[in-house]
Every structure is written in C-alpha cells, then in structure tokens.
Structure to design on (253 residues):
C-alpha cells in the first residue's frame, strides 16, 4: 500500500514538473512573439508598413503628418480638384465632354473659388462655360485653346485673371470683365480672332499692351470712366459709354 502511494506521489510530482516546463515554454514563445512585434522600426512606420488596426487614431494622424506625402488630386465626375489651405476648392482639370459647362459651385460642400492653370486648356467641345458664383481667380491659360468656345460667363467676384487665360479662342465675340478685376494681364485674349467687343469696368486701371494681341475684329469698348475711354481712343476702338446707356437708353446711338 505504501509502495502505491509512493508511485502516485512520484507520478504527481512528474506531472507538475511537466506542466511547469510547458508553461515556461509558452511564456517564452509569447515573449518572443511580442518582441518581434515591437521590433518594427520607425522607418517601417514612415513607409506605411504598420497595419492601421495596430495604431490609435492619434498615432495614425501623427504618422500621416510625418510622411510628407502630398495629397493626391481628387475626382468628381469629369472634374479633378484639390482642397486649398483656406478650405475652398480649386478645379485642376476638366475631363468631361459636355458642350455647355456649368462649373460646380461646391465640391465636398466647399465653395469652388479657383479655376486652376490650364484647367480647360485645349478643350475642343465646350461652347458655353459658366463660372460658379464664388469664383475669385482664373489661372493662367485656364481656357486657352478652347476652339469651340463661343461664350464664357465670368462671375462678379473674380478679381484675378491670369495671363493667356482666354487666349486662342477664335469663336468668342464678347467678353465682359467683372467688376473686381483691376488689371487685364498680358496676352489675356491673345489670338481671339473673333472677339468684337469687350466691357471694361470702372475698377480696371491697367491693361497690358498685348492683352488683345491678334484680336483683329475687336472694335467696341463698353465701359464707364476715364480709363476705359482713353484706352478706346488710344487703340482706335469705338467707345460706348455704359453710364449714358443706363441714363438715356438707346438714345445714345
């Protein structure tokens, strides 16, 4: 009987020892796995190799800020655009095929304020283009080379129109520069061979010498104020006084 007890006691001790060894092995394996996970280097984080689910929201934001990778252009319909620092939108390019284009007033519930450089350059289909109400700037060559364009409606808040912004558009016959524009830049309408009349607002105080180079059909200058009148006289254009038209109607003719 005592021999049996001794055997059971030895067996129990052996079982406990085996369990302890197994426990130690498991702990060591867990520690090794944890150590391997912790060895992910900072360079891996910068290259985006760390799975997002292993980072907190704050860590994800910090990692994104540290990569210095610029935001890619966004796409909506036929438009490519980007968000500006002031939270508004710049149209970068139009890739649609419409003949009458109403540039969107909003993207992502943000005002569209800038038509970027070359955004519509070389478009061969657009016949009419309407800018959004909150637009304040038209970039250089934004509408240059739009060979089918007949009408462009520039809204009143546009204060800057870049060089060659509406150049080489042979079918445009009339351009009304908005009230916020103070300078008409170089080659703005260069090569618009069908352009017959322009409207110069009172705020305009400077027009580049070659702003209308090659616009051989241009004859009429609508405006009010001394600058517009002097510009017409110096360039041998017929001057039409908008103030008199408002006061006297067709009697001005």
């Amino acid at each position: 009987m005592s021999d049996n007890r001794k055997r059971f006691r030895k067996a129990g001790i052996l079982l406990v020892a085996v369990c302890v060894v197994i426990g130690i092995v498991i702990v060591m394996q867990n520690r090794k796995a944890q150590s391997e996970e912790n060895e992910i280097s900072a360079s891996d984080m910068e290259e985006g190799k760390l799975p997002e689910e292993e980072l907190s929201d704050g860590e994800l934001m910090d990692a994104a800020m540290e990569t210095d990778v610029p935001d890619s252009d966004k796409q909506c319909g036929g438009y490519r655009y980007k968000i500006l620092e002031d939270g508004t939108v710049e149209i970068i390019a139009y890739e649609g095929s419409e003949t009458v284009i109403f540039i969107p007033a909003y993207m992502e519930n943000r005002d569209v304020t800038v038509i970027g450089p070359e955004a519509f350059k070389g478009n061969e289909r657009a016949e009419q283009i309407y800018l959004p109400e909150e637009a304040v700037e038209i970039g250089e060559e934004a509408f240059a080379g739009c060979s089918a364009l007949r009408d462009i409606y520039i809204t009143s808040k546009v204060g800057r129109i870049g060089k060659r912004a509406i150049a080489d558009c042979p079918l445009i016959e009339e351009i009304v520069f908005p009230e916020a524009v103070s300078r008409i830049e170089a080659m703005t309408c260069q090569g618009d061979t069908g352009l017959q009349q322009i409207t110069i607002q009172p705020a305009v105080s400077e027009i580049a010498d070659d702003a209308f180079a090659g616009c051989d059909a241009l004859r009429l200058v609508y405006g009010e104020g001394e600058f517009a009148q002097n510009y017409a006289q110096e360039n041998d254009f017929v001057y039409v006084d908008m103030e008199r038209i408002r006061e006297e109607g067709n009697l001005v003719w």
